[in-house]
Amino acid sequence: MPGSTRCGTGLMAGTGAGLVWGLAFLVPVLLPGWSAVAVTAGRYLACGVLSLALLAYQGRTGWRLARQHWRAALGLAITGNVGYYLLLVIGIQKIGAPVTDTIIGCIPVVVAVVSNWRAPFLPWRRLVLPATLSLAGLALINAVEFTGSHQAAVGLGARLAGLAAAIAAVALWTWYALANARFLTTRPDLPAGSWSSVVGLATLAVTAVALLPLVLAGHASSPVTGRPGPAAFLAGVVLLGVVVSWAGPGCGIRLRPGCRPPPPGC
Fold this sequence. Notes:
With 266 residues, the protein is mainly alpha-helical. It has one domain. Helix content is 78%, strand content 0%. The chain has helices spanning 2-29, 36-58, 60-68, 70-95, 97-104, 107-118, 124-146, 156-185, 192-216, 230-253. The chain is globular. The two termini are 33 Å apart. Mean pLDDT is 82; it is low at 252-266.
């Protein structure tokens, strides 16, 4: 019974994480007219400021980790946070959330296959059938959505660009997941919360250097009539930066061994 209780708690936490992470797809849909650069910059400015505050609260321990591992944190920030989400939002804006979401849904399968290829753990015969069925189902869903009537108003070039962005997002997050796992495996004593704050601080730096100048140069929004105003945009990106970037992973950490992990974070 104790094991069942722990697993049940883990499954509830994983479900909560999945619901929270789903907002990463919903919020850009609710902010039409605001560019992918603006949404991504807003999210990670909010996330980065919170990370900075948490590191300040941790004191010398947090700052020491940041100085020691800033290169690794920077690489993870570029790939798993800023780069991944920028491509995801571009995909949502070009081909819609349903298609982008199903492509992003390939991440667990891709991570499992690539991970087993790099460090064999399971016989390939045990992976071939479930991976093939999963990818075939995702392909069928994407084919229906990609050619659906609601996509008729979108040009083929825009749809292909959105498809390429979503696939590139899968590739980036796969690299990020494996690189982060490898890094943490070699440093088992590294506190997960502190490391998240360090990566968040690196994300703040990347956002300030690479995206904020574009926003200030006028790449924040397109002239769409009736688009949500600055207040709605601010609420959306704070929701992404604080709730999605922190509450989602916080639920994921509560998963117990033996329970199925939640979908990948955003």
